[in-house]
Write a structure and sequence with these properties.
Number of helices: 12
Distance between the termini: 27 Å
Structural class: alpha+beta
Shape: globular
Number of domains: 1
Low-confidence stretches: 312-316
Strand order of the largest sheet: 1-2-5-4-3
């Protein structure tokens, strides 16, 4: 049965998935030590890399790092004891796992937002000076949007003008990625039933990350409610809080890969349960996507690192 993984697979980077070994450091290191030539095109700073394989291995490092962070965060929920008193931390952890895994999806699909400090951008600024290139936006601390083009071996960097916070920017860009995947699926050669199934799963994921069944936008707003405003009844006196056994059972099913998109109750009555289900759905989508794109690439770096860790946890 087709699903959300096939939708994202229309956008993924085959060159990245074929990387056998991730670099010791990520894209920030490549900006410092990589070999590239900068130009300005369409209000973007475009870096053409002559060591593109090295760049891809640096992206692989970041994918592994974030996937490991998502996986270990999910696993740590199962280790939480004394629910319901620790329920808020289970929800917060589920949120961060979804946040990390969403960044994995975006990197595998060759477009993602990231935060750079001025210090990290200084090597890039020096390269621009050497080539006499004037970046369209100041290379100073803030959010940047990155897109890579495997065919042209180019990396485009632009600075959003919305000025939103890190988490909100990431969810906004993830939302756009889902829309793009949906458009591709709509124009694809899938049969009508398959197309409807994929579109329904993409719609569910949008509902989850947009927190569409809540009064506030984005999952990050809900995490703030739990973490800083002690809402959703998961803090003393625990009014209408999520059942502790349900939290553990849902996480165990996710780790054992015994779930599909329809499994998640993203419209559950209790806010705390709904929030958990939304986060776990996103984690499921990312894990299924990783599994799909690495299935036919037996030497891919995705079979090591997080892939190895996930196999160990599924046998536990």
């Amino acid at each position: 049965m087709v699903g959300i993984s096939e939708a994202f697979a229309q956008l993924y980077s085959p060159g990245l998935v074929r990387v056998k070994k991730a670099a010791p450091e990520g894209v920030r290191s490549w900006l410092t030590h990589g070999v590239y030539r900068p130009v300005v095109s369409d209000n973007q700073l475009v870096l053409t890399g002559t060591d593109w394989e090295n760049y891809l291995s640096c992206v692989a490092h970041d994918v592994n790092r974030l996937a490991m962070a998502g996986h270990e965060t999910i696993c740590s929920i199962s280790e939480v004891q004394g629910l319901p008193k620790s329920t808020p931390w289970s929800l917060i952890k589920a949120y961060y796992a979804a946040f990390y895994y969403s960044q994995v999806i975006m990197r595998l699909c060759r477009q993602w937002p990231t935060y750079f400090s001025t210090l990290e951008l200084r090597p890039l600024e020096k390269i621009c000076i050497i080539y006499g290139v004037h970046p369209p936006s100041p290379l100073t601390t803030g959010q940047f949007f990155i897109q890579s083009n495997d065919l042209e071996k180019q990396l485009s960097i632009s600075k959003p003008n919305n000025g939103t916070a890190t988490h909100e920017t990431m969810w906004s860009e993830m939302n756009k990625l889902i829309d793009r995947a949906s458009q591709i699926v709509e124009a694809s050669t899938y049969g009508e039933n398959e197309r409807k199934q994929i579109q329904a799963e993409l719609k569910n994921m949008k509902t989850a990350l947009n927190a569409s069944t809540f009064s506030k936008p984005w999952l990050s707003s809900l995490r703030n409610d739990v973490q800083y405003a002690q809402k959703m009844g998961v803090w003393h006196p625990y009014k209408g809080t999520i059942n502790s056994e349900l939290v553990q059972r849902r996480v165990e099913l996710l780790l054992a890969a015994r779930t599909n998109t329809d499994t998640f109750s993203i419209k559950a009555t209790r806010e705390s349960e709904r929030f958990l289900e939304c986060c776990l759905l996103i984690c499921h989508a990312a894990r299924a996507f990783i599994d799909l794109v690495s299935k036919d690439e037996k030497q891919s770096f995705l079979h090591h690192g997080v892939g190895k860790l996930e196999k160990i946890s599924s046998r536990a």
